């Protein structure tokens, strides 16, 4: 269902400024938490859940506010920083479906507080499967429910204490209409015959493993493309790990210590004294200046490294190279990928799905770069499954991908 599929004129949306029951007090003590636990355990139906983090402000990706709403219980705002964990609240919700929007963003920080849904309904993912072009919470609430949500505080520092009143209103409104939104999307999934697909996707989201740590995370430093040579790259590496140590100790986002471009600038300039270092934008900040001695020591250490201790100029990779290099490195693989992308796009359009929700692009790239031998529906299906493609997706694309890979 594309957003322009309904040609009827839609009414002007109503701006939602306050929750229907008002904004509850933030729960931050054991007595208040036990009251919430009892209230939500006695309530019925699915529970809407959301979490607010302090991305870009704090090092730890934890939840700083958790919002819940359930029929018969109303809305609760819980400050998880006041508790060792929220396992008791989790137990009170162990028999119901949890509704989240863009669940992959919140599930890790909820798990960090001891909260893990037994069953999931992801409204963003459901909207993608239904074929909506705009799947943000505000866009869906406006289109399907006729309300406008204010989204001014989505990038706020939620570790702030006390939390401002308008932030709490925003947070409460994030779960205000999730149950109603879930019911509309559930009906649409059933109408389109996609409810079973959604169940597989929701289960995959719930059981997704934590991403493996990157072998060389410093190589993703913004601006590193300007750094040439093994020893300058070693400077980026040394400065990156030092910044990460400082950021973790202070629980500050690394960019708040020294921004990425400054690390690249220092790696290129290789300053040897305080004046040279602090002339680089980014190192003029408080943490840049306060740790100047340590930055300079890190750079001095790199000057003494042997050639064997320097990083390779090109990062090691077990997967396919960047697709812009395929044509020169393996023209046949590039041709396979072109055919496969076209085939996936055709199947996705026929089922009103975004291509990336039909099959993960990374799985298609891996299949085309190194196809199984022989190329059959069974071997292609096994290769796709190895890369996390779900059964319903394999059923839709395996045959057409066999043809595309064979050429």
Automatic annotation (TrEMBL):
Swiss-Prot/TrEMBL GO biological process terms: nucleobase-containing compound metabolic process
Residue segments, region Disordered: 307-331
Superkingdom of origin organism: Bacteria
PROSITE patterns referenced in this protein's UniProt entry, alphabetically: HRDC (PS50967)
UniProt key word Repeat: no
InterPro entries membership: 3'-5'_exonuclease_dom, Exo_C, HRDC-like_sf, HRDC_dom, HRDC_dom_sf, RNase_D-like, RNaseH-like_sf, RNaseH_sf
GO MF: 3'-5' exonuclease activity; nucleic acid binding; nucleotide binding
Keyword flag Flavoprotein: no
Keywords: Exonuclease, Hydrolase, Nuclease
Pfam families: DNA_pol_A_exo1 (PF01612), DNA_pol_A_exoN (PF18305), HRDC (PF00570)
SMART domains: 35EXOc (SM00474), HRDC (SM00341)
Domain HRDC: 229-309
Protein name: 3'-5' exonuclease
Organism: Stackebrandtia nassauensis (strain DSM 44728 / CIP 108903 / NRRL B-16338 / NBRC 102104 / LLR-40K-21)
